[in-house]
Amino acid sequence: MEVELLEWADDLVLHYLKGYGESINYRMGVPLLQNILQSMEQAILMKQDPQIPAAVEKARLRFAHAETIIPFTCLLGLFLSASDIERIQSEQPLEPPSKPPQQRRWRGSTVAPFAANTMLVLYKCPAQEGSTGKVMVPEELTNSFFVQILHNEEPVSIPGCNGSYFCPFEVFKERVAGPHLRHTFESLCTVKVTHADCPLTCRISRFFQWLFLRKGYAPHSCEDKDEL
């Protein structure tokens, strides 16, 4: 029981610092998700356009630490129940993992063990004809592509796609990635500073403080006294 409590305590730290405890944690993975979607769209375009040479990028490998892998898995909504995925899509923080002996799906030892990895695989349906028996139009061709997610080389269900293991690309783009793609790197990482009302004497004081600190001086506070 003590070991389980220690594991749970470690999961709490991961939950708040890198996981679902704060929405900014997983929103940091938005640029990575955008890049992955762009590479998939490029692969689909090359498959659809006969004018483009058949040589398509087979894989794009990215290497990072747990500080990237954990937020990215949270961005995808992995290891969640159906009731929690809606909160993630609306970018709300989740409650911490349940204390043992209660069961929990989100475990640090599962999400980010040593050599953790997450793979997004794009599949193309081999069918060449639409439901009417005619050649597929571009929209139908797009729907013939599916996304599968593997975590640590194991297929995992996609809660944002009704818990399926193979999600149509357009559904994945709309339901899983779409709620987060309204953000940009600049909007996420730019600090919005709000200044309170400050009179002229206050602004002058701040200016001299900045000037002294820039030159390496350390101005004394009003409470400091120099003794001879």
From TrEMBL:
Pfam families: His_Phos_2. It is found in: Membrane. GO terms for molecular function: acid phosphatase activity; bisphosphoglycerate 3-phosphatase activity; inositol phosphate phosphatase activity. It comes from the Eukaryota. InterPro entries: His_Pase_clade-2, His_PPase_superfam. Keywords: Hydrolase, Membrane, Signal. GO terms for cellular component: membrane. It is an enzyme of class 3 (hydrolase). Belongs to the histidine acid phosphatase family. MINPP1 subfamily. This is Multiple inositol polyphosphate phosphatase 1. It comes from Picea sitchensis.
